[in-house]
Specification:
Putative surface protein with fasciclin (FAS1) repeats, 7-stranded mixed β-sheet, 38% helix, FAS1_domain, 9 strands
């Protein structure tokens, strides 16, 4: 009887651990994003972010985004990159365009950890919008769009919607967006 009780107790403990683990993960691109992994280690597993990962590699930003952080990455999906004019991505990943690609990618990175709650708080403090400086030195604007949606606006007026919030990483947070932000 003691052995059955131990098995039941162990099974219950594993079930509780699995439920807690599942609550702390978010599915992106068909894969669980594990909070114990860094931004790059999670991003490479997302089928929705293969273009972003290739661009990060071409720009030489892998080591930076594996760094301590914290970083908030507004991660455009493959569909977001596909909205760009034909040939844009192929041109940007060429070695001679590394500086331009780096500026675009770092425009999607904000130092610090900005999950939905932090963005909402900044928007409220800003009287309906917030501006956050990106790693490229140019600001992005954030506005509430309804109760549970936040839009990201680049300095050219392009608007991205955040489709997945609060993808926590060991070195920051990812918020998935549907449009590539372009600095002027």
């Amino acid at each position: 009887m003691r052995k059955i009780s131990s098995v039941i107790t162990l099974s219950a403990a594993l079930l509780v651990a699995n439920v807690a683990f599942a609550e702390n993960t978010v599915m992106v691109g068909g894969q669980s994003m594990l909070p114990s992994k860094d931004i790059i280690d999670n991003a490479v597993n997302s089928a929705d972010h293969t273009t972003l990962v290739a661009a990060v590699k071409a720009a030489g930003l892998v080591d930076t985004l594996k760094g301590k952080g914290p970083f908030t990455v507004f991660a455009p999906t493959n569909a977001a990159f596909n909205k760009l004019p034909a040939g844009t991505v192929d041109t940007l990943v060429k070695p001679e365009n590394k500086a331009t690609l780096t500026k675009i990618l770092t425009y999607h990175v904000v130092p610090g950890r900005y999950d939905f709650a932090a963005l909402s708080s900044a928007i409220k403090k800003g009287g309906g919008q917030a501006e956050l400086a990106t790693a490229s030195g140019v600001k992005l604007t954030f506005k509430q769009n309804g109760m549970h949606n936040i839009d990201v606006i680049d300095d050219g007026g392009h608007v991205a919607s955040i489709s997945t919030y609060d993808v926590y990483q060991s070195n920051g947070v990812i918020n998935v967006i549907d449009t590539v932000m372009l600095p002027k």
